Amino acid sequence: MTTRKDEPAAPETLLAHVGGDPFTRHGAVNPPVYHASTVLFRSVQELLSPDVVQRRTWRYGRHGSPTSDAFEAAMAELEGGCRAQVFPSGLSACTTTLLAYAESGGHILVTDSAYAPTRNFARELLGRLGVTAEFYDPGIGAGIAALIRPETKLIFLESPGSLTFEVQDIPAIVAAARARGVATAIDNTWSGGVYLKPLALGIDVSIHAATKYICGHSDAMLGVAVCNEASWPAVKRAAMLSGASAGPDDVYLALRGLRTLPARLARQGATGLTLARWLAARPDVVRVLHPALPDDPGHALWRRDFSGTSGLFAFELPPTSPAALGAMLDSMRLFKMGFSWGGFESLILPLSFRRDRDVRPWTGQGPLLRISAGLEAPDDLIRDLDEAFSRLKGAS
Ligand SMILES: *Cc1c(COP(=O)(O)O)cnc(C)c1O
Questions:
Q1: N or C: which end of the chain has fewer CB within 10 A?
Q2: From residue 236, how far is each of 103, 118, 226, 230 by CA, in Å?
Q3: CA terminus-to-terminus distance, the chain
C-alpha cells in the first residue's frame, strides 16, 4: 500500500491492502501459498551469494516463505513494529520470547494473570534451566520497580488477563523496566492488535495467539511476535534456533483473517458489550468482568490505553452445583463450550484456574463463565442466555 508519510493508516484500510504487490504475481490479489521444504539454487555462485548466506532471501522451508513474509510484514505494519516473527502456535510465540531472554541465574517477572501454559513454561521449564520466574500482581503498576533485581531480564505482561480481565498500567511498568534496562513483552491477543499498540507504549515484544481473533474462523493454530529494533535480534535468533516453523496453509489463513479482522472485532466487541450490559443488569449475576464497563476496576486504564474492546469477557454466578450448571449450559442452542476464543461463533466456558495463581488469588465464590461473543445477532444470543438462566433457576 502507498501511504502518506504523515498519516498512519487506519487498521481497516491498511489490512485491506497489505500483502505485497499483486503485479509481481500475475495480478492475483492475494499471495500464493508455497508448500516447500527444498528451495533450489541455480549455481554455486547463487548458493554462496551474500543474500543466501545471510538469509536475506528464502533458502529453506523452515525459514518461512513469501506467504509468511507477507503476514509478518502486515503484522509489523499493523502494530508499528520493526519486524515480526510467525510461530506454529500462540504458546510457541510466548515461550520462544521467554527463551530469548532466559539465561541461567536470570530472573523473569510474569504477570499472575498470564495464560496458564505460559506460566507453567516459565516456572517449570525455565526453572530447570536455572531461571527464576516470579509472578507479580497485575495491579502492581509502578510498584513493579521494587521487584526488579540486578539479574532481571524480562517482564512478561498480559492485559487484560484472558480469564479475569485485569488491565495493567503498561506505561508505568515500561517506565520502571526501562529505568533498569529490563526488556518487556506482552501477550496482546485480547486486543487483536487493533485496539492496543503496545510498541507505541514502549513495550519491546507484542505477542498474539493468532489462533484466536487474527485467524478468526476456529480452523488454524498460529502465533506471531511483533518486535521493535531492540528485541528483534534476540527473538529472531531464538525462533531460528528452536526450529519454530508454521505450516503455509495456516499462515495463509491468518493473512486472510487480517483482511476482515477490524470488521469482525468491531462487531464482536459491540455484541460482547451488549451481552455484558444485559448480564450486569441481572440480579442472578454476581459481577461482570469487562474492562469497557464503567464500573470495572480496569476501566480507567483501558480507556486511556485501548481504542476499543474485543468480544471476550467473563461473569460470575452465585455458588451453583455442577448439576445446575450442566442444566444451564448443556443444552444451549447457539453458545458452545470450548477452550478457544475469537472465532466467528459464540462460546461460553466455565473456568477453573484457582491453582494457576500465586500472588493474586481469585476470591469469587461461584463459577466464573467466560464468553467469546461471535458474529450472531445479539438478540438471538440474549434469548439463548435468557433460556439458560431459566434452566439454571429451575435446577437450583
Ligand atoms: C490461546 C492463548 C494462547 C496460546 O495460543 P495457542 O495458539 O493456543 O497456542 C496464548 N495466550 C492467550 C491469552 C491465549 O488465549
A1: N
A2: 16, 19, 10, 11
A3: 58
Q: How far is the CA of 212 from the centre of ligand 1 (A)?
A: 7
Closest CA to ligand 1's atom 1: 209
* Per-residue model confidence as pLDDT tens digits over 27-47: 999 999 999 999 999 999 999
SS3 category, 274: helix
Q: pTM here?
A: 0.96
Does residue 115 have an active-site annotation?
Answer: yes
Identified catalytic residue from 55, 56, 60, 62: 62
Q: Which residues contact 290 (CB under 8 A, 6 or more apart)?
A: 165, 272, 273, 276, 296, 309, 313, 314
Strand-pair category, 205-209 with 223-227: antiparallel
Is there a contact between 333 and 327 (Cβ–Cβ < 8 Å)? no
The tens digit of pLDDT for each residue in 378-387 reads 999 999 999 9
187 catalytic? Reply is yes
Q: Looking at residue 27, what DSSP letter applies? A: T
What does R_g of the chain's alpha carbons equal in angstroms? 22
Mutation choice for ligand 1 from 87, 89, 91, CB with most ligand atoms inside 8 A: 91
- Grid cell locating 214: 487474527
Q: Are 310 and 190 in contact (CB under 8 A)?
A: yes
Orientation angle between helical segments 248-280 and 66-79, nearest 10 degrees: 30
Cα(127) to ligand 1 centroid in Å equals: 21
Task: Please give the Cα distance from 25 to 170 (Å, whole number).
Answer: 42
The single-letter DSSP state of residue 23 is G
SS3 of residue 134 by DSSP: strand
Location of C-alpha cell 497485575: 138
User: pLDDT band for position 250 (50/70/90)?
Assistant: very high
Residues within a 6 A CB radius of ligand 1: 89-91, 94, 115, 158, 162, 187, 189, 209, 211-212, 221, 223
- Contact residues for 151 (Cβ-Cβ < 8 A; gap 6+): 105, 106, 107
Chain centre to alpha carbon of residue 161: 10
Report the nearest atom of ligand 1 relative to the CA of 189: 13
Cell of 27: 495480478
